[in-house]
Amino acid sequence: MFIVQGNWKPSRTSMQTLNLIFFALPHVFMPLLRRELEQFVNLWNHHKLHTEQNRTPLQLFITELTDTESQSSLSSDDVR
Question: By CB neighbour count within 10 A (0-12 exposed, 13-18 middle, 19+ buried), where does 55 fall?
Answer without folding.
Answer: middle
